[in-house]
Design goal:
Layout lengths: L8 E5 L7 H9 L3 E5 L11 H8 L5 H10 L4 E3 L6 H8 L8 H8 L5 H8 L3
Helix pairs in contact: 2-3
The structure holds NADP nicotinamide-adenine-dinucleotide phosphate.
């Protein structure tokens, strides 16, 4: 059975270690939001060297870089979880900096060499 009501969002696991390129392309084409659950990979992104190095340029943590990377993608939002009030504050403090295109791509490349595969496919 299908619904006549348009789908507002599709909630799936999405974070710097999880590729969702095909689904995101579908969501953009069909004007459906992609809601990223486990956006911090259940905490596994903590202490990631690449995210930490990028964050250091902006005075941000690896957590904030991961959330910013999600929010800067078209039609993506995120629902990070925490039991720590200080972490809630940190989650909100991601709207006053912007990742450069190159940094966005460096984070995409954490997904098992997606950037390398894209560059090869595009002949770059
Ligand atoms: N639709 C579905 O099937 C589905 C499946 C899974 C999850 N979800 C939803 O997705 C949401 C979040 O996903 P998630 O709970 O899997 O994990 P997540 O948001 O990816 O990660 C949360 C973990 O990161 C830790 N964390 C955050 N900031 C930290 C910091 N600065 N230092 C150290 N640890 C830090 C938190 O610990 P603290 O508590 O100590 O901050 C928490 O353990 C939840 O609302 C959940 O319901 C939905």
């Amino acid at each position: 059975m299908t619904s006549d009501t348009p789908i507002l969002t599709n909630q799936v696991e999405y974070h710097p270690f999880k590729e969702q390129a095909d689904l995101l392309e579908f969501c953009i084409e069909n004007e459906v939001m992609l809601t990223a659950y486990s956006p911090l990979a259940e905490g596994r992104i903590i202490r990631n060297d690449r995210l930490k190095a990028i964050g250091a340029r902006y005075g941000k943590t690896e957590v904030q870089v991961a959330l910013r990377w999600l929010l800067q993608q078209e039609q993506v939002t995120a629902i990070p979880k925490t039991s720590n009030p200080a972490h809630i504050q940190a989650y909100f403090n991601v709207f006053n900096f912007e990742l450069a295109d190159e940094e966005m791509m460096q984070i995409f490349d954490l997904q098992g060499g997606l950037l390398t595969r894209l560059q090869t496919a595009l002949g770059l």
